User: Fold this.
Amino acid sequence: MSFFDVLKDFDGFDFKAFFEKVSDVDILYALNKPCLDDLDLLSLLSDKAAPHLEDMAQKSHELTLRNFGRVIYLYAPLYLGNFCDNECLYCGFKHGNAIERKKLSLPEVEKEARAIVATGIRHILILTGESRSKTPVSYLKDCVLLLKKIFSSISIEVYPLEAEEYKELIEAGVDGLTLYQETYDRDLYRHLHPCGPKSDFAYRLDAPDRACRMKMRSLSIGALLGLADFRKEAFFLGLHAVYLERRYPDVELSVSLPRFQRTVSDFLPAFSVGDADLVQIMTALRLFLPRAGINISTRESRALRSDLVGLGVTRMSAGSKTEVGGYCLDEKTQGQFEVADKSGVGEVKKMICDKGYQPVLKDWQTL
Ligand code: SF4
Assistant:
C-alpha cells in the first residue's frame, strides 16, 4: 500500500463536519494519550484546539526534550542553479518568469561552499530548480563529489529522481533528501502545477519511498503552508510521516513547516497561516510524531524562530541565501523567496545558546 492509497482512503471524508463536531473532551483526550491516532491529530489541528495551545505547547516541549534533548541542528542551503522546467504558480523560479538564470560552475560551487564552511556550518542542503536538462544528475553528482570534501553531511532538494538515481547520488556522498509535496490536495495540485514534469502528483508523492528504498539516511518532507487549508495539509503531512516512519524505521525523518513567502511572481496564497497557527501545527505534529525532527527555515523571522526553540523545533537553517551565487559571488540571481531571518550563523548560534540550547554544527560524518 503506497501513501497515495492512504490519501485516497480520505477521499470523501467530511473535514468540515469533523471540525464542527470536535469538542473540548476530544481535545483533552488527545492531549492526554501516550500515542495519538489519526483523528486525534485532526482534533488537535481543529480551531477548537486553539484555546488549548498552552497545554499543547507544554506537552510538545516535554516530548521534544525527552527525544532530542536541548540541541538544535543547523544547516545552510546552497542553490546550485535556478533553471526550471515547471510553472508552479507560486514560485519565482517558474519557467515563464523572466528572471536571470544561472547554474554554478564547479569552481563557483567550491567558492560558495568555502564561504559557507567559514561560518562553521558543516551540514549542507543543495538545491536546484527542477530542470533535468540544465542540472542533470551527472552535474549533481559532480557537485556532491566536490562538496563531500568540504561538508560532513550533504542533503539534496532537487527534482524527484528515479530509485537508481538516488542510489547513484547516495553512493557519491548524499545522505539526506528534502522533498516537499507542496500540497496534498490533488485538485489544487493540478491547478498549481499546470504543466511540466512536476504536474505528476503521484510520481512526486512516491519519491521519498524510492529514496528510502535506496537507503537514504535522512528525509525531510513538507507542504507549503498557505496554498491550502493548513489544518488538512498538516494532517496529511502527519499521516505521510507516520507512513514513512513505519515503512522505513531506520530512516531519520523530519517534517518541515515552510510558510509561503513573497516571491517575484505575483501569486498570493489563498489561505493565511498566522504565527499561532504555525505553533498549533508544530505542537500537534510533535504530539503525533514524538520522534520526528521538526524543521523551521529562515522563511520565519528571527523573533519567531527564537520563540519556537523549546516548543518542538529540532532543525534550523542559518545564514541562508536563496540566490544562486548568494554567499560570495559577484554575479548572483534573485532569490527563490524572501528570507525573513537574515541573521548570520553566529547570531543564530547565540540565539540558541541564549535559550539554553546547544547549536549542533556537525552530528554526522559520511566519510
Ligand atoms: S517550486 Fe520548484 S519546480 Fe516549481 S517553479 Fe519553483 S523551482 Fe521550479
In short: The longest helix spans residues 230-247.
